[in-house]
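Risk register update: the risk of archive-format incompatibility is retired. Evidence:
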Amino acid sequence: MVDATREPHSLATASGLLLGTLLLAMGVGAILGWLLGSAGLGLLIGAVLGIPLAVFVVYRVYSRQT
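Archived output:
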């Protein structure tokens, strides 16, 4: 059994990081798309780029844990 005091990151932390990073990337994409004339396309591009970005953020946070 894993000691909860030694494990500062949980599944909720990882989920929050994934969702937060993805939503941030989608928001930035939508704003840039709106400025360039197509908010929907910007939102889509933000979502596509946000998925690997979110995975990278979670990887970086959990790799520093050791």
